[in-house]
Amino acid sequence: MAKKAVILVSGGLDSTTVVAMAKSQGYDCYTLSFDYGQRHRSELVAAQKISELMTVHAHKVVKLDLGSIGGSALTDSSIEVPETETTGIPVTYVPARNTVFLSIALGWAEVLGANDIFLGVNAVDYSGYPDCRPEYIKAFETMANLATKAAVEGQKLTIHAPLIDLTKGQIVEAGMALGVDYSNTVSCYQANLEGEACGKCESCRLRRQGFEQAGIKDPTRYQKNA
C-alpha cells in the first residue's frame, strides 16, 4: 500500500513542483488549499485545476478568515502590494499563516493515517518570511510529534520541505524534469480573476527570475499592462 501525504498547495510554482516530487516518490497525494481571504483568489482555481491534472487522490479547500485580523497586504485591501524591492520582512507576510495551515494539514494527516506533510517553502529566493526558515519547519515537526494521538502511538510525522535550499531556477529545473506544466500555475500576489499576473510584485519578479536562471521560456500569462 502506498504511503499517504498531505500537500499544501497554493496553485503556484513552488507547491506544484512539490506535488510532482511527492508523486515521483510514490506517495498517494492529498492536496490542501485555503480560502483565507486572500486578494489573489485565482490561485484557488489554479490549485483545483492542478490537483485534477496531477490526479491526486483528493483535494480539499478549507475556508478561513485571516482577513478578519488583517495585518498583510494579501488579506487587507487597504495595504498596497509593493511593486518595488523592499527591505526587511515585507507587508505581504501573513501573520501566522504557515502555522495555521500546517496545523490543519496535521489534523487531516492524522485523520487520513498519513505520516507525511509536504509544503513548498523556500529559504533562498524568497521574501524573508520567518515561517519559511528551516528552523521553523524543524520546530513545527517537533511540536506535531508531541501534539497528536498518532505520534504518541508511534506513528511519527515528518514535515517535508524539499525546496527549502533551492534557488528559483533550481526549482523550475526540478519541476520541468518531472513534467510540470507551469502555464497552469498562478504565483502573482495580485493576479486578476483570469489568473493573469501583474508582472510587478515580488512574487512575479522571483518567478520570472527562476525561469531566466533555468533558461526556460516563461509560460506565465501576464496582464496587458504588465
Automatic annotation (TrEMBL):
How does the cofactor bind to this protein, according to its record?
A: Binds 1 zinc ion per subunit.
The biological process GO terms on file are: tRNA queuosine(34) biosynthetic process
Q: What class of enzyme is it?
A: ligase
Tell me which InterPro entries the record gives.
QueC, Rossmann-like_a/b/a_fold
Q: Pfam families, per this entry?
A: QueC
| Record field: catalytic activity | 7-carboxy-7-carbaguanine + NH4(+) + 2 ATP = 7-cyano-7-carbaguanine + 2 AMP + 2 diphosphate + 2 H(+)
- UniProt EC number: 6.3.4.20
Protein name from the UniProt record: 7-cyano-7-deazaguanine synthase
Biological source species? gamma proteobacterium HTCC2207
Name the gene for this chain: queC
